[in-house]
Structure formats: structure tokens, C-alpha cells
Design goal:
Oligomer: single chain
Radius of gyration: 41 Å
CATH architecture of the largest domain: 2-Layer Sandwich
Number of strands: 9
Strand content: 15-25%
Order of helices and strands: HHHHHEEHHEHEEHEEEHEHH
Bound molecules: phenylalanine
Distance between the termini: 90 Å
Helix content: 40-55%
Structural class: alpha+beta
Length: about 325
């Protein structure tokens, strides 16, 4: 039967073992289903009850001791393993550290911030409005007649007969005038959608819209603010041209061109005095109030500002293009 001898035999054998696989084999010899201890338990059935009890107590005691020996030896082997791995994995402290790459403000957002900075200083309030619109806000209330060509334009993304993706931020003019009485001085930025795609057009692009309604707002005020804006945005020396134009929602209307570095006139914004019909549509008395509105194409300005040749680089998310703007700080973001 069992004796203390068995423990010293196990201890002797176990000390020869160098890996977990061999350890398991040895463990099975003693503690496995058909191992030494199990066999001893089976033998008990030949004894009388008293003996059975006595011997099984002893057997349990041995089983416990042996189990402990194996657990401890397993820990020892695992520790050796970890230490070996650690000594193999030496750390080269001369390697340069990993650089934490920072994102940068997208050029479009940077231009938006720059524009915002100018107009907010002049008292314009920044508001946002929906991109999914209906006929009323995008066309009807803006004095765009039902037969007007831009309504049937294949350019518009229609959702159904009435609902569309807004084609211009001018929808915000109506939304704000329907909401609050004059004086109104707001500024909005946002995405607009037109079915168009080439190196100067994308189906989604950004516009900025300004609206000022008060007593005695006149055309000179409009020209003045636009001229100041363009000179702030580019520089004092830039050549600016005001050109008569037509928009159903402004009368008179104008467009502003600037001369680019190839001596070519480039249109950058549309503007005008708010049409009396538009004021009537939103129940503002055109005899008491007048106002001006202007709409700026953000991508156009961004391309001119950074001298980009293809509008699509702005939306392709090519990291090589975007990381060139890393140097730009949050200069205009405080407003
Ligand atoms: N909404 C016009 C456009 O998309 C621009 C504009 C805005 C013109 C406000 C006049 C006044 O071209």
C-alpha cells in the first residue's frame, strides 16, 4: 500500500521534467483516470468497511499532497518559460518612439471657419437648417415660379414630387424669416446637392448664405460688406468685379468675380436685395423692411485659396492630400 515513499519517488521524477507536456504525462500516471491513486481506490473494495474508511482517508490525504506537488511544479515551469521569453526579448532603447499622428482640420472646414470669423464679428448669427427640404422652402417661397427652368432641372435630387435634397442654402432665408421678426442678421453653412460631377463640380458641395433684414438696408450696404469680405479673405490687392445678374429671390441681383493668378475672372458668389415677393411670402412688410442676401460657394473659395485644380481631391479623403493641411491651427475656431 501507500507509503511516504511514493511522495519522494514523485518528487524525484518530477524534478527531471522540463516541459508542460511531460509533466502532464507524469501527472496522468498518478492522478489520471487509470492512474496510481485511482487504482488504489479500486482496490479498497476487497477490504472490510472499517479498513475501507481508514484507508480512503489516507488515500485522500495523499491525493491532495500529490495534486499540490503537480500544481506547484507546473507554476515553476511556467515561470521559467516566462523568464526565458523575457530574456530573449531584449528591448532596444535606442529605437525612436512612435509618432502620435494628429488629424487636421479639413480645408473645407478651415475656409468655413475663416468666413465665419469675418461675419460673426459683424454681428451675424450662425444658424443651421435641414438638407432635406420641400418645394416651398427650396423654390416656392423664394419666388421661383413653377415654370422656372431650375425646378425641372435634371440637376435636382428629388425624393418624391415635393421632397428634395436642397439645391441651395437659400432655404434657410425662408425658414428664419418665417420664425423671427426683423431685424434679422444670420449666417448659415451647409451641404447642398446637385446632379453634377466633373473637375469643378461634385454632387454634394457646400454653400454659405448670409441674410440681413432691417430698416433702410440698401444696395451700397451689400456692396460694401461683400467688398470688405473679399479683401479680408484674399488680400487687399485682389481684383474684384461686381456684375449684374439674375436670381428670382433678389432684385437687383449681382455676382462677384475675382481675378485669379491666370488673369481670369472667377465667379465666387451671388447676391442681391431680397425680392419684395419673398418678403411678402413670409409676411414681412416690404415698405418698412428691406434686406440683402448672398450665397458663397465654399469649394470655389477653397480651391482658389489653396490653388487646387480639381474639386474632387476635397472629398476623396486621400491622406497624402489632407496631411498637407496639418500646419493649419484652430486659428478661426474660437468664434
Ligand atoms: N442661392 C444662389 C445659388 O445657389 C446664390 C444666392 C444666394 C444668390 C443669395 C442671391 C442671394 O446660386
Amino acid at each position: 500500500m501507500l507509503s511516504n515513499n511514493i511522495i519522494s519517488i514523485i518528487e524525484k521524477n518530477i524534478n527531471l521534467i522540463t516541459n508542460l507536456h511531460d509533466l502532464n504525462l507524469l501527472k496522468n500516471q498518478y492522478l489520471g483516470k487509470n492512474g496510481y491513486i485511482s487504482k488504489q481506490f479500486k482496490k479498497l473494495k476487497n477490504h472490510n468497511l472499517e479498513d475501507k474508511i481508514k484507508k480512503s482517508i489516507i488515500l485522500h490525504k495523499y491525493k491532495k499532497i500529490i495534486t499540490k506537488i503537480f500544481i506547484e511544479y507546473k507554476k515553476k515551469l511556467e515561470n521559467i518559460d516566462i523568464n526565458q521569453k523575457l530574456t530573449k526579448q531584449s528591448i532596444d532603447i535606442t529605437l525612436p518612439g512612435r509618432i502620435n499622428r494628429l488629424g487636421s482640420i479639413h480645408p473645407i472646414n478651415n475656409i468655413i471657419n475663416k468666413i465665419k470669423y469675418f461675419f460673426i464679428k459683424l454681428g451675424f448669427q450662425h444658424i443651421c437648417g435641414p438638407e432635406i427640404e420641400n418645394n416651398y422652402y427650396n423654390f416656392d417661397a423664394l419666388n421661383i415660379e413653377s415654370y422656372h427652368s431650375i425646378r425641372t432641372q435634371k440637376d435636382t435630387f428629388w425624393i418624391n414630387n415635393d421632397i428634395l435634397l436642397r439645391t441651395q442654402t437659400s432655404n434657410i432665408q425662408i425658414r428664419i424669416m418665417n420664425m423671427i421678426p426683423p431685424p434679422i442678421r444670420i449666417l448659415t453653412f451647409g451641404k447642398v446637392y446637385r446632379h453634377d460631377y466633373d473637375n469643378t463640380h461634385t454632387p454634394m458641395f457646400h454653400q454659405m448664405e448670409g441674410l440681413y433684414i432691417n430698416n433702410n438696408v440698401n444696395f451700397t450696404d451689400l456692396k460694401n460688406i461683400l467688398l470688405n469680405f473679399v479683401q479680408y479673405f484674399f488680400n487687399k490687392k485682389i481684383k474684384v468685379r461686381f456684375r449684374p445678374s439674375y436670381f428670382p429671390f433678389t432684385e437687383p441681383s449681382l455676382e462677384v468675380d475675382i481675378m485669379n493668378n491666370k488673369n481670369k475672372w472667377i465667379e465666387i458668389l451671388g447676391a442681391g436685395l431680397v425680392h419684395p415677393n419673398v418678403l411678402k411670402n413670409v409676411n414681412i412688410d416690404a415698405n418698412t423692411y428691406t434686406g440683402y442676401a448672398f450665397g458663397i460657394g465654399i469649394e470655389r473659395l477653397t480651391m482658389l485659396y489653396y490653388n487646387l485644380q480639381d474639386i474632387r481631391v476635397l472629398f476623396e479623403n486621400d491622406i497624402r492630400f489632407l496631411q498637407q493641411f496639418n500646419y493649419i491651427t484652430y486659428k478661426y475656431d474660437k468664434v
